[in-house]
Records
---
Amino acid sequence: MNAKNIIIAILALVLIGSIAYLMLSSSENDTLVENQDQDRPIPVEPDGGIGDGAQPLDEVLAENREAEAVIGSSVNGNDIKAYHFGEGKTEVLFVGGAHGGYSWNTTLLSYELIDYLNDNPDVIPDNVSVTVIPVLNPDGLEATVGAAGRFEAKDAVSVDTNTRVAGRFNANEVDLNRNFDCEWKTTGTWRNQTVSGGGAAFSEPESQALRDYVQSYEPAAAVVWFSSEGKVYPSACGGTPNRASVDLAASFATAADYPAEAKFDAYAITGDMVNWMAEQDIPAISVLLTNHTNTEWSKNRAGIEAVLNMYAE
């Protein structure tokens, strides 16, 4: 091989070696970048303080609650409001006005409780908070007394019986206390009458509002006012009331001087709100005022304070 051919061969070998080196270097860089991507921590989106080692969900929810909050709306678009008192983690829920204008005194009683807690916040134990929903059925109340919220007793006492009975139901003519998911049926019973339980359990926006509130905040106990019989009942869904509901009923009834009954058995109740709460493992009671006009504030204040002290640490 002459000198010229040797030089050409050497140059070719150098060129091949350079190309191989460049290809190997590129491959190693790609591998390094890939491994760097794998080793780099994956960014974690902030969870708003809810997660492992962070603030518990119930505390976050409690901090976001205003003293007066809208928790839903009625068929006719009236606000359903909840009023919050105290800062304890153990929440006791009070509900009035489920039967709107038919039991308007339960709404007046609820507002009396709101005013009392505003004036006497010290009656709430440090570890307890109180929520009051004064009007679960604002449309039924408005149809009877002309207001979906606060009103005066004088605006209601002269209402005729037919108007008051019609106010028991929401604007879809559903009995809200037959619309909850405990032994629910399309038609329910009220005394000797057939009433609508709605198209499905929780078909109505009012019952949805209470359901969502209860499932979000999981109160430790609930007291729901109805009228009229002058008795207190524990709750159970399809069985015997548990000990917690029985104890809650006994505590309220003893302090308020109402008879405490073991079970409501005058007629079959389906889709009942209080019984549904019992199924959610929330001790709940039905307090039936003696008539349709009096709030019996002194009696109920004693029952309320007994319940609050029952849940004090």
---
Amino acid sequence: MIETLHRWDCALLLKLNAIHSPFWDTLMSAATGRFFWIPLYLLLLGLIIVRFRKKTLLILPMLALMVLLADQSSRLMKSSCKRERPCYNETISGQLNVYDGCGGRYGFVSSHAANTFGLAMFMFLLWKGRRGRRWMLLVFLFAIFASYTRIYLGVHYPLDIAGGAIVGMLSAWVVILIYRKWIEGLIKE
């Protein structure tokens, strides 16, 4: 079963990684970096300040906690599972387009996916009301695109991304629970 799943994961990776052009190579390489998304992060910060005003000072530490939880959980899983990144897999590495180097040896689960999907889920759960949540769904498109860059660049399998997305969304859910149960509860008292 595990071997079959790994074969499917490799086959999907090779299909998704094979689509390349100079324009996309440049964009994907830039989009996987930390600084590329700063305008989006500033926009989200502005939206939080406008929407939540004084609660922003409570929300931002919760957001930082969520990123810390997602990031450290993904790192712990990498060191526990020890699943090599595809660019270290001798069977398929010669067929991959790898652009910015391979990164660390292990890739399950993707920290990029954990952090970006965690942010998307945090924003989605934080926002109350249908109208606001609809806009927050756009943040999930950011998470999908940012995570796909890792497959495009040959440093993660699709299951690494899926696992990271789950870790991130669970981290967001836990932190939002803490925020709603304890932090908002303290304000009401």
